[in-house]
Amino acid sequence: MLTIQEAATKENVTKAAIYLAVRKGKLKSKKVKGRWMIKEKDLIEYIENKWNRNLSVYNGEPLFNPSKGELSVNSVADTLGVKPQAIYHRLRAGIINGFRKGSSWVIRKCDLNNYSYNKYHRTGLFSNKDLLNEKNELYAKIEAKYGE
Q1: Which residues, 6+ apart, have CB-to-CB distance to 28 below 8 Å?
Q2: Is 132 or 70 the better-scoring residue by pLDDT?
Q3: Which residues is 58 bridged to in the sheet?
Q4: 62-74 burial string, b = 16+ CB within 10 Å, else e?
Q5: HEC readout, 74-111
Q6: In this structure, what DSSP letter does residue 115 have?
Q7: What's the half-sphere exposure (Cβ side, CA atoms, 13 Å) at 31?
Q8: Spatial CA neighbour of 47 closest among 65, 28, 68
Q9: Which of 22, 55, 84, 89 is most exposed, with the fewest beta carbons within 10 Å of its own?
Q10: Nearest-angstrom CA–CA distance, 35 and 25
Q11: Burial class (CB in 10 A: 0-12, 13-18, 19+), 23
């Protein structure tokens, strides 16, 4: 039997996330001497059945489909080395083009390439070798991660 804190540590989430899963009935638990306790097998079952955004579908199609060049905010943030919140800001400001599928933002690979092109060309600093190297590294990252 695990306490809420032990379950949170094991799953690498906050105690509040575990309490929420318990309150919503997604994670089985029981009170023992005034403390919520979770069986190890119930935690494993919860982890295995937990919702995964990458496997989500919208109108019968995958929400994100890298083979079609449709990327998630998190994967773009990871590629660019920034936090997802920075990508949301750029989407809302129109700096990166994207579209919504349901409530989720989807960014096409071509829009990511346009963003990286504009990032380096709108400044007009072509002669700066550091910027040129940074641009080439970003293009290489995008191609390595998402291909043609």
Answers
A1: 38, 39, 42, 45, 46
A2: 70
A3: 61
A4: ebbeeeebbbbbe
A5: HHHHHHHCCCHHHHHHHHHCCCCCCEEECCEEEEEHHH
A6: H
A7: 5
A8: 28
A9: 55
A10: 17
A11: exposed
- Using a pLDDT cut of 70, give the percent of the chain over it: 80
Amino acid identity, position 81: G
> What is the arithmetic mean of pLDDT over 58-81?
80
**CA dist 55 → 23, 51, 61, 62 (Å):** 24, 8, 10, 7
Spatial separation of the C-alpha atoms in residues 103 and 89, rounded to whole Å: 15
pLDDT at 39: 93
- Fold exhibited by the domain 55-146: Multidrug-efflux Transporter Regulator; Chain: A; Domain 2 (1.10.1660)
Which amino acid is located at 126 in the chain?
Answer: F
61 vs 85: which has the higher pLDDT:
85
Task: Using DSSP bridges, classify how beta strands 57-58 and 35-38 pair: parallel, antiparallel or unpaired.
Answer: unpaired
Backbone angles phi, psi at 65, to 5 degrees: -135, 90
Nearby residues of 104 by Cβ (< 8 Å), 6 or more positions away: 53, 56, 58, 63, 64, 72, 73
